[in-house]
Amino acid sequence: MPSAVSSALSRSSADPVDDALTAALAAVRAHIVAVGAANPVVALDGRSGAGKSSLARRLVAAWPGRGRVQLVALDDVYPGWDGLAAGVEYARQRILSPHARGLVGVWERWDWETGSRAEAYAVDPSLPLVVEGAGLLTPEVARLADVSVWVDAPLPSRKARALGRDGDTYRPHWARWAAQEDRHLAAHDPAGLADLVLSIP
What we know:
Number of helices: 7
CATH architecture: 3-Layer(aba) Sandwich
CATH topology: Rossmann fold
CATH superfamily: P-loop containing nucleotide triphosphate hydrolases
Distance between the termini: 22 Å
Structural class: alpha/beta
CATH class: Alpha Beta
Largest sheet: 6 strands, parallel
Strand content: 15-25%
Strand order of the largest sheet: 1-8-7-2-6-3
Number of domains: 1
Low-confidence stretches: 6-11
Number of strands: 8
Shape: globular
Oligomer: single chain
Radius of gyration: 16 Å
Helix content: 40-55%
């Protein structure tokens, strides 16, 4: 049964989103400490604009341990606007599975302008790994993660954040991407797979 962190207590704050992310970070850090591994894997899932990327960056900056932490954003992995499921499977095969087996993983960034794979990156299995992206928490990925997180947020907030961030580039594709997220939720119930369910306003 996943534990949940609510932003309810921060609604009177001048910045409730920041307060909620601060609470979310504390909860994720506590789970990482409880795992007690030198190289834990944290998987962050949530719909577009929920706050995954912000939480992932804060987590890497405030990691509860020493040394370097690797961060992979699935926005650099998805093979285009119809590639949610394919990107997650690519990440599972090229990043998460090798890490779990103690092998170096190698993945290639997706160049959205050329529509092809670009430069390659290595993932060190001896180091902690944070992977964040919509569609990430499938049963297969959840088994490879030491801490799995579902980040939830209301549709109006998510859409405002996502379009505010990516603007006209994303606007024509919002519904197309949301439909893929809908299919992921129906097929995999990521909130049910998560160790933590976090709510961001």
